[in-house]
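Data availability (excerpt). The following record was deposited with the supplementary files.
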Amino acid sequence: MYISRILSVGLMIIISLCLFTVYYPQEITSPLFDYGLLSIIKCLTTFQIYLRQLIIQPTQLIIDKEEHIKRIDGSVNYHLSQYEQECPHHRYHTRIITRKPLIIYIEQFLTRNEIEHLSELAEPLFHPSKVYDVNGAHNYDTYRTSSSANLKRHQTSVVKCIEQRFAQFQGNIEVERIEPFQIVKYTPDQQFQPHYDWFWQADLLKNGGQRLTTFVTYLQANCSKGETEFIEVRFNETLHEQLCDILFCDEKSTGSGIRFRPIPGNSIFWSNVDKEGRLDYLTYHAGRPPGENGYKMGLNAWTRARPFSVSSEE
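Predicted structure:
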């Protein structure tokens, strides 16, 4: 209990420092001040990871000799019948990756049974993915070659509970602000080339306003690649060396953006706008191909500025 309290306080200090540097007036900050905060955050993050390892059974990432990511063990699971009565009080763990843009990594955000349930719902619905063109029309394009399956809002009690979890993570916002879930599937050479999730086309903002945040949650992965890369957030060995369990850290790293491993059950959350509500160009990202004989499946969840009407969907 004592260690758990220390862990909670440490995490609160990290988050407070991050919010302080993001929201405090820029005129009082300086390079030296910013460097000092980065050093403190790094030390506290290391301490938090150490304490968490003392009290939490770690998730085991299984990687074969060819570095194919297969599964994770040690996560909490719930019987699906439980969701019909009430949503389980699910516990997960977070890491702040960057503050500008705000990117938070969420470990064990979905359980094995939830992943299987979502995968079963999506399987008969997959069709070639589409992209929005400059006029806001939804079309097929070689820029995005994956397959997509669109679920209905509140489609099942399990889906409804997961929607609530995503809303609660963002301060218990209205669930109706979250677009209906989209599940995407990638085979060896399929990808989504670099893009933004926010919209600049006026027609796409009429229903719900801007896409303020994004969750990318991995459901299945049997691949040696398949990373989610943030092109404009450059890999920094000093800052990112302790994140190599979730990031690719190899000979390509120093010349690329940070690249997240597709680990089932885990989620990447980021804000598509800055603290002033302006579009954040640092969120430029890509879904890379899984590689030879590879396969991955993920869940996309976007949050709008206002409730999103499902009657306006195609």
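Summary of structural features: Confidence is low (pLDDT under 50) at residues 19-29, 51-74.
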